[in-house]
Design a protein that fits this description.
The chain is mostly helical and 86 residues long. It contains four helices and no strands. The longest helix is centred in the N-terminal third of the chain and has 31 residues, at 9-39. The mean pLDDT is 86.
């Protein structure tokens, strides 16, 4: 988008249309991810728990849910080690 202002009018219209399409796709994917993480009581509870952590947001939580899916840890240290952070 940083070069949109230097493009010719014909190309600019196509770029703007494509950007609008991509923005709609991102919204649809975000919505689908939210539906999946709210779909089951177990995932919803896990999402709500992760959501209580101040530094985690709507983009990070689904990644963590998928990364740790189905795994149990005795401590946060074990989870961090599994993720390669300890």
């Amino acid at each position: 988008m940083n070069r949109l202002h230097v493009s010719c009018a014909e190309v600019r219209t196509d770029i703007e249309r494509h950007l609008a399409f991509l923005e709609r796709e991102i919204k649809d994917i975000d919505s689908e991810i939210r539906q999946k993480t709210d779909g089951g009581i177990h995932l919803k509870k896990q999402r709500e728990l992760l959501d209580s952590i101040p530094s985690l947001g709507v983009k990070t939580i689904p990644v963590l849910l998928s990364f740790f899916s189905g795994r149990r840890f005795r401590s946060s240290r074990q989870a961090a080690a599994y993720a390669g952070r300890a």
